[in-house]
Amino acid sequence: MSNPLIREKICDGVHFSSVTDSKFKHNRITVNLVTPLDKKTVTANAVVPFLLRKGCRSCPDFTRLNRRLCELYGASLSCDVAKYGGNQVLELSIYGVDRRFTFDNMDVTSQCAQLLAEILFEPNLRDGFFPEEDVKLERQQVVDAIESLMNEKRAYALSRCRQTMCKGERVAIEKYGDIEEAKALTPEKATKAYQALLETAQIEIIFTGCGDPSAAKEVFSKAFAGKHRQPILPAVQSYGIMPEGRNGVQEAEDQMDVAQGKLVLGMRAGEIKDKKALMATRLMTAIYGGTPSSRLFTYVREKLSLCYYCAARFDRLTGLMFVDSGVEIANRQTAQEEILHQLSLLQAGEFSKEEEQAALLLMQNSLRSVTDSLGAIGDWYMTQILYGSCDTPAQESEMLGQVTREEIIEAARRTVLDTVYFLTAKEGN
Amino acid sequence: MDNRIQETLKGQMQAIRHSSGLMLLLYPMKGFSTVYATFTTDLGSVDTGFKTQYDDDMVDVPEGVAHFLEHKMFENEDGDAFEKYAKTGASANAFTSFDKTSYLFSCTDRFEESLAILLDFVRRPYFTKESVQKEQGIIGQEIRMYDDSGDWRVMFNLLEAMYQVHPVRIDIAGTVESIAEIDADLLYRCHRTFYNLANMVLCVAGNFEPEQVLRVADRVLKPDEKPIEITRKAWEEPREVGKQLVEQKLPVAAPLFEFGFKGVSGSRKENLKNQVLDEILADIICGESSPLYRRLYDEGIINSTFDSEVMSGRGYHCILFSGESRKPKEAAKEIAKEVERIRREGIDPELFELCRRAAFGRYIGLYGRPESVAGIMGAIYFSGEDDICMPLETVFSATMGQMEERLEQAMNPEYSALSIIWPVEE
């Protein structure tokens, strides 16, 4: 079975964590650079992982780097930009087979760790800066990512709702930043962002797999030895409570060239005092709109056919809950009323033991499967670390099982509507 | 290959012929929480004509019947299979490919209950005139939706251009016209023929004990009344492609292309082995470590969406390169030129060795997750192999000689075709 997480500090603001499990055949090492979302830095930060993925001192070009990965039994090196609450997280990750499954007994894992450390610390700079042609090519990746968000109407509507709800807050900033700034990125700006991240980001290195993490820990401990860092703590802030002075529900609407409307209801989950309350809100969200047998799915979608999709999700790091749905423009009002009506039923305790059971079963199922995937284990503990806890999926599953009916009702009553956002067709269409 | 690796991978699999006639391939994986089960029949979209030993003549069936049947199986007199799974917490699905139909679920708890649901509903057909009509509407919508999908069209346009008679050229779901010909009697007949236990396989991998499967199988599975031997319609597919270029306009952001080399299809066993070898070959030609990839990427002819795929099944085998490109014709021309060059000058032995190592690591990965283990067991079984390590062994023992032979047979630019989807001009 999966061993619990072991987390050690290896430098100022740098932690090395490991979760090992002998059932796997691979090992995965991820370096997460965590930094509070900030309009001034977000766009330049976003291009950094893509630039680092291009090469390093010993493999100064893309082909050489890929050949090196082939030698390491096709190890995969990936980079990504993620958002955890009010933080931007830049991920660099390498995944390779364990020594036991090589035909020449190669120590793939420690070589992967070395390569990853080199990618992080010794990028291929020219006269101290990322090469101009690389910056041009890779800033386009960021531009494409921002544009594809515009094209993904469901994600776009969610993001617009969050922006309206949390105007001026960190959590309203998008993880890839701003498109105009992305187009204007230069080698100087990108290099400066990279250097600032190395100095100030909180760095979480997570090892998951079947092998021994000590060699990887050694590699990173050495790489960070003697570095003087001034880490900035990650942003931890809940937005669950209604800001003072807010009167009534906010409304926002955009018009775009769409056939189907997107309705998003932004809610605040209230004051969550402890883990018991957190678990109750999680379970309540699942009963409300988190599973194929949930209220929103069965009533709003199946029985009344008001929406193509209708789901609720809750984010523990922000305390926010969003209900989003794809709806015929003419059905907007009816759908909104029905979504809120279903919440009021939960608040009145009008739900069955079976619904509670079905939601619990599905959540426990998905918690149990977390330990079957190296990627899912890494993501799980990143959320835990940023939430300031260290529970295993099994512990959370157990806590969920103890949630009472009264606690679910209480969680529903804490939840209040803040903002209604509607993405609709252009007039005249 | 290193015996330790083989023993580790092989040791876990049990193949049991159940008294009902069904083959059970069981692969318990210690330490995992998930169990993944697939119940698969050897019927796909390319099976457009067949007969059994009891029929005098071949029966020709409308295109898309396998996919239609898959959709209809979920409905029964006593309700929908998904509703039953909701009570056990399993997540379930099904898919139809060119030559298989598979029903599956995964769960971490109450495995026996979910397995009983799977083994029951797939064997219990229930079709009425009304329900067939309703489904014709639903699948018709699905087909139209795919008509607008650039990724889908670019591939099917290519297959249609490459293959002149083989039904791999037809959309898996068929056409609105072809599915209009389907009725309940025909569905019953297909079910009787192909959902015979001797023509199916159950693959289970992950967190379970073999006794659990046997217990459920004993209780739920009833033997078929009579054994069935299927003869499938054979296709005389010419070596030449039908068209070398096919173009279409759709609302896509950037032009899409797919460039294919039509290979020679052998037995199912040969095709599986060649598929593994050709994946290495495609990597040598234009994988991320190849000189061609670098050149095309730096010149902006391809981007990170570029990929290759080997498609192989009953009666077809081809190697496909695809992605977004602002200059799709140039991309295809450059790939063809590189193939010509390597055919002339030979394969770079160093690059071959790198690609072989990478393929080895990739294949090891397939034995590490319940869902991919179940998939590989099914593929091995239907190819007539019994060694689950066969693909890995093929990678391990691959030689330069084999690569050159495959290059000669499977990648001749004379038998290639290009499909392009252009954006609609604003």
Largest interface: A-B, 40 and 48 residues
Q: What is the CATH architecture assignment of the largest domain in chain A?
A: 2-Layer Sandwich
The CATH fourth-level homologous superfamily of the largest domain in chain B? Metalloenzyme, LuxS/M16 peptidase-like
Strand content of chain B: 15-25%
The CATH H-level homologous superfamily of the largest domain in chain A: Metalloenzyme, LuxS/M16 peptidase-like
Total strands of chain A: the figure is 11
Query: At the third CATH level, what is the topology name of the largest domain in chain B?
Result: Cytochrome Bc1 Complex, Chain A, domain 1
Distance between the amino and carboxyl termini of chain B = 57 Å
Q: What helical percentage do the residues of chain B reach?
A: 40-55%
Largest sheet of chain B: 6 strands, mixed
Q: Low-confidence runs of chain A (pLDDT<50, min 5 residues)?
A: none
Ranges of chain B with pLDDT <50 over ≥5 residues?
Answer: none
Question: Any guess at the CATH architecture of the largest domain in chain B?
Answer: 2-Layer Sandwich
Distance between the termini of chain A: 57 Å
Quaternary organisation of the protein chains: heterodimer
Overall geometry of chain A comes to: globular
Structural class of chain A: alpha+beta
Largest sheet of chain A: 6 strands, mixed
Q: In words, what does this structure look like?
A:
Chain A has about 425 residues and is α+β, with helices and mostly antiparallel strands. Chain A has 2 domains: about 5-225, 2-Layer Sandwich (Cytochrome Bc1 Complex, Chain A, domain 1); about 250-425, Cytochrome Bc1 Complex, Chain A, domain 1, CATH 3.30.830. Helices cover about 45% and strands about 20% of the residues of chain A. Chain A has helices at about 40-50, 60-70, 110-120, 130-150, 155-165, 180-185, 185-200, 215-225, 275-290, 295-305, 330-345, 355-370, 375-385, 395-400, 405-415, and strands at about 5-10, 15-20, 25-35, 75-85, 85-95, 200-210, 250-255, 260-270, 305-315, 320-325, 415-425. With about 425 residues, chain B is α+β, with helices and mostly antiparallel strands. Chain B has 2 domains: about 5-230, Cytochrome Bc1 Complex, Chain A, domain 1 (2-Layer Sandwich), CATH 3.30.830; about 245-425, Cytochrome Bc1 Complex, Chain A, domain 1 (2-Layer Sandwich). Helices cover about 45% and strands about 20% of the residues of chain B. Chain B has helices at about 5-10, 65-75, 80-90, 110-120, 130-145, 150-160, 175-180, 185-195, 210-220, 270-285, 290-300, 330-345, 350-365, 370-380, 390-395, 400-410, and strands at about 15, 25-30, 35-40, 50, 60, 75, 80, 90-95, 100-105, 200-205, 230, 245-250, 255-260, 305-315, 315-325, 415-425. Chain B has a 6-stranded mixed sheet with strand order 1-2-10-3-9-8, with helices on both faces. A 5-stranded mixed sheet of chain B has the order 12-16-13-15-14, sandwiched between helices. In chain B, strands 5-4-11 form a 3-stranded antiparallel sheet, with no helix packed on it. In chain B, strand 6 (about 75) and strand 7 form a beta hairpin. The interface between A and B is large, with 40 and 48 residues.
